[in-house]
Amino acid sequence: MKDFYRILSYVKPYYNFAILNVIFNVLTVLFSLVSLTMIIPFLGLLFGTMEVDIVHPEQYSFTLSSAKDYFYYQINAIIESGTKVDALLFICGLILVTFFFRNLFRYLSLYFLTPIRNGVVHDLRTSLHKKVISLPIGFFTEKRRGDITSRMTTDLVEIEWSIMSSLEMIFRDPLQIIIYLITLVFISPQLTLFVVVLFPITGFIIAKIGKSLKKSSEKSQAKMGDILSVLDEHIGGLKVIKLFNAEKNANSKFDSESKEYESLMTSLLRKKDMSSPMSEFLSTIIMVVVMWFGGKLVLGGESLLSPEEFIGYILIFSQVIPPAKSFTTAYYRLQKGSAAAARVYELMDAENNIIDIKNPISKTSIKKSISVKNISFKYENKEVLSKINFNIEKGKTIALVGKSGSGKSTIADLCARFYDISEGEICIDDTNIKDIKITDLRHLMGVVSQESILFNDSIYNNILLGKPCSTEEEVITASKIANAHQFISETENGYHTNIGEKGDKLSGGQKQRISIARAILKNPEFLILDEATSALDTESEKLVQSALSNLMKDRTTLVIAHRLSTIKDADEIIVLSEGKTVERGTHTDLVNKGGVYKTLINLQNIS
Asked: Which CATH number among 3.10.620.30, 3.90.45.10, 2.40.50.320, 3.40.50.300 corresponds to the domain 370-444+554-607?
């Protein structure tokens, strides 16, 4: 239940609403109680079984006993001055008034509960999104996207419906039960003590079922994460599925996951559906036992209770059962919701190792160089890089080449601190990047990767991401430098055209030029080009390469390339193989050397 209490901590900003909710809940219970307790004097006085002492008003004091005597006196006065029908009309009118206020205050209690319920879920969702965005890239290579999506969607919905919808019961029902029990103690302490002894027995049975419900809920929430992961993979790989006629296999896999979820949910809902009949039956058992025990006392003359007081007692006790039942239902919901809360907080509590040191250094420019000093990096105990060294002087271009898996992109990721280095260090002007404020470090950098990362928004907003405070004129200027202005102008709504999910309404070359325009707008001091042209056709490559040349002018640049024709003019080329440096030098030096680089040149037919 600790996760439930953590969720309740989100109620703090809404404590004003919570106080008002409690106040109106108290008023609701009090007016409900008044309407019920009037039955006792009404029965006694109406049928002439209760005698009332004539006491002057000045003799009454502010006690429950005195208030009861005064009320009995007023009812008796009405009966004596008129008829029993007049007294009946008075009681009915009084009950009508009390029930009107009871329901008015009940609505007001719900009115002030609504912003608490919706506000807490909103704050929790926002906190979770903020946490996910802050986590290092490495976290998402270990977790399936579908599972993370499940925690941010279905688990939060479960929390909203299971926990937040129970807030009304949590705030109201215990209060109602306590007030009713105090009233029952006032009417008959002996009988109420007997009732209180019976409650722990039912509580034990309810707790056992609730524990089982939580375990089933945990399994079902995890399985929903698996289903969303499979769905995400199938949508992402739809072209491959269709190309290889693998629809049958895809459907079979999804059907298998869905059937497991169906089985888990069937078990879960059966346990949940058992909660209401079980709690009602247990409450009925207590009710019958109280009727038998109390009736026996009254009939045997062993109790101070009069018959009408016993009937009133039973009536009030019967009103304890609905809140006890709904409180039980809330308990089951909380057990079910706690499983979802545990999954949410597992994500919320995920450790982020890529953080600023205690007093980070602010760095807003590169004055001399970027140095990679003897770095090594392991991923899941597999060595990816070993003893890599190079230096990029300000305004110079260094190129990294090699086969896939040689560690080129890993170096780029380490420069941006997407991961932290196992050994060695990367420095900007002799300052370790671990000592530099992360926001400053990434502000110095601009990345254009092989896969253009665009968002389901307008062209304008995708470019503006590079520098949100830019003017429209600056966005257009950046687009012209990136050779993107012409095709943007030809789209349906120009710069305000929506490009679809991942920019799928555009061609590869168009997406890449928008990415370059975004980098140009940011105007970074350190540019990383990660195979920026390898996925393009010849015509698109020429346009993109021209745009990249504009971007690289007088800029410190790290180029990762498969197409070696794009890096012939680099100040130094470093050839990697299996995470190690095997060759380095200018294009001419490496060709004349006749080693690995020369072999790669020959394979690509580059002179």
From this structure: 3.40.50.300
